[in-house]
Amino acid sequence: MKALTNSLAGTRTLVRLILRRDRIVLPLWIISLGILPVAIANTLKDLYPTAAERQSYLDIITANPALNALYGHAFGAGLGALTAWRLGGTVLLVGLASLLTLIRHTRAEEAAGRRELLGATVVGRQAPLFSALLFTFDASLLLGAVVSVSLIAYGLPVAGSMAFGLSWTVFGWAFAAVAAVAAQLTEGARAARGISIAVLGLCFVLRAAGDAGGKDGLSWISWLSPFGWTQRVRPFADERWWVFALFLGLVAVLAAAAFALSARRDLGSGLLPARLGPAAGSPWLRNPLALAWRLQRGTLLAWSAGFAVFGAILGGITESAVKVTEDSPQIKTIAERLGGSSGLADAWFAAFMGLLGLVASGYAVGAALRLRGEEADGCAEPVLATAVSRVRWAGSHLAFAVLGPAVVLGVAGLAAGLIYGLTSGDVGRELPRVLGAAIVQLPAVWVLVGVTVALFGVLPRFVGSGSWAVLAACVLIEEFGRPLQLSKRLLDLSPFAHVPNLPGAEVSAAPLAWLSLIAANLIAAGLLGLRRRDVL
Amino acid sequence: MNDGDAIFISGLVKTFGRTRALDGLDLSVRTGEVHGFLGPNGAGKSTTLRVLLGLIRKDSGETRLLGGDPWREAVKLHRRLAYVPGDVTLWPGLTGGEVIDLLGRMRGGLDKGRRAELLERFELDPRKKARAYSKGNRQKVALVAALASDAEVLLLDEPTSGLDPLMEAVFRGCVEEERRSGRTVLLSSHILSEVEALCERVTIIKDGTAVESGTLSEMRHLSRTSISVELARVPVGLAGLSGVHDLEIDGNRVRCQVDASGLDGLLGHLTPFGVRSLTSQPPTLEDLFLRHYETEGPEAREAAWESRGTDRAGVAR
């Protein structure tokens, strides 16, 4: 007991420090995510006021494999059940917020050397990890409470509201625990973040693959993923409370593992040992582009691998997902209204490629933000003190921000098109169509890169928060713009609103050219600003 | 501006928001000299170097580096200079050896033999990843990268911070060699002994302005010598002598500070009282430095503290 109190000494102070540092970001996350369910419930009520209309909406959902894969199964035609279904993908953001918060207060602190400063004060060995977990758990609890209370206040059933809010809470806990383990494994915060996000992505894909084929098929796969668990709680549709035990078990195991790992390792080190490297730079390491490649190649390879796996799974389940709907005569009539099996497949790919475009934007914005990271760390200074101009330096990282998304989207499109083509028996037709649907997202991705570069050149202090906020706004508009009945003008603000819905829809070059032109201008403005301003 | 000046700065002003970091700074560094740039933390040394590197833009004033404009001709000029930042941060995943080669190649060349020699002298393992280096070792990486280049000008911003005394000695040896081979060095520092040992000329900066500049002997000449005398009899009439300051008389012992012009008069006055022993100490850089900073607040104390803590023996000779 004494040993435990010792190793947790200083937790209270550390939690206060975290509160101080997160006093703006955290309330923003909690409020924006917390009131989303009630807003969605409200617009669904407007759109489908009667029980009959909601039932036919449920039939459409069930008939559309893309919707099943993106959001999961819908378990009832009540307003609450439909709301919970529609937010089935949003829980991803809860996990993301949770893991980012945890890494920010554990491995990022340690890598920056601040943990050492604290470690020398009266702070127990496990206190930093414990306080970060405590804080993230409390934040998730608060988020769940906001969700439950607002839904109850809106008039939805109490049990369902509680179950739904709680499912978000435990989902946050689960990914805080995943991040707690990842934070022990690597020396750098970037790698820890990458591992956690990869786990999040994998869990999403597992659930999507399991749910795509309707309620029969491969739906057991969804049980392998916390995403699947949140839905199998079935809020508002005869709640199954025992599913929460799965979450608690997972959290307990992961947290115990994280504490055990953290007790074993030295401050600053990871479990994966640091090795010696080359004593001299290889001959190609001679210019900024080579340096940027060294710094960004790992991220690019990891994203490409992730997109390839996602594309392969996507392509692999398309045929069976579309087939399932044809088996049921009742669903079939609805499915035919949606365009039959080829129409369903097209809608399926269009929906997923739009999602991939948003995700690829996350990669691209991150790659462009390396510029600011290098500047703020002081790593840009020695480069700019050599015979390298600012534009050349910036261009080296921008190459990844501009071409990187082309690579990852291309890989996903190729994998999805190839495998779908093989299963449906017509590679020659499907491969170019699916690849095109992936690549057509690029101009919209570039606009977000342009926004980031423009901010970097002109308002460098706000480039991090600003560019992520713009991406978040696009996600919000794309995901919830229509259900929230935002005005057309607002919807059009997202560059993705102008991307043709390939495959299937008509391609018109004009919007794509416009998007590219806007992106190019934003990038040029950013570079011009960079040439004129002081370097940090 | 003199043609022999590698660096010429006149009336340089740079503001950050409301703070005036540089306030009419003058600085000239002759080609081939090692120039000390002295001042406590926050005096504006790094800001000056960053203006010279074209990383930040001056508000007004004139700056010339190797005859060029540091802002507009940055890339061209950077081929001819090497820089060691005050706070060296490196890419965590690259090894020290890779960083040295990369920076050297981006500047336009690196002397391989010199690189190997410097690695040995600084006892640096180039195979380690940068995240595993201590502060001193990161500093060594930057020093080796700069010293192994064939640059004409070296801009060194507090280059020995984080180095242990042995490595400081190695660094001094290296700068000594650079001087002999005719390179121009601008050495920013707050370590007085280091500057005193290495630099022919010194500029002292305070609140963004140069308060003193010249060779050490010139500055000594302008400054006061401290005299301590033991006499046979108790002296009289010393207080009235011109050029004598801080006079302390304790029986037949006398201590005072004398302007160079007052030395003759003082010694003539003392002789009749029977000089038993006399110690005269030329002003140290520390004295010069403190004269400008002593009346000030905490920064001055900090600067004095640092100089004492570092190497007392080197200052008081």
Give an overview in words:
The complex is a heterodimer of chains A (536) and B (317). The model of chain A has no long low-confidence stretch (mean pLDDT 89). Chain A has 25 helices and no strands. By secondary structure, chain A is mainly α. Helices cover 76% and strands 0% of the residues of chain A. Chain B is of the alpha/beta class and 317 residues long. In chain B, 36% of the residues lie in helices and 29% in strands. Chain B is built from 11 helices and 13 strands. Chain B has helices spanning 45-52, 74-78, 96-107, 112-121, 135-147, 165-180, 192-198, 216-222, 263-270, 285-293, 298-315; strands at residues 5-16, 19-30, 34-38, 60-65, 81-84, 153-157, 184-189, 201-206, 209-215, 224-231, 244-250, 253-259, 275-281. A 6-stranded mixed β-sheet of chain B has the order 5-6-7-3-8-9, with helices on both faces. A 4-stranded antiparallel β-sheet of chain B has the order 11-12-10-13. In chain B, strands 2-1-4 form a 3-stranded antiparallel β-sheet, with helices on one face. In chain B, α3 (96-107) runs parallel beside α5 and α10 (285-293) runs antiparallel to α11. Mean pLDDT of chain B is 86; it is low at 297-317. The A-B interface holds A 111, 187-188, 274-282, 285-288, 290-291, 294-295, 377-379, 381-389, 532-535 and B 50, 53-57, 74-76, 78-79, 81-83, 85, 87-95, 97-103, 105-108, 126-129, 131-132, 142, 145.
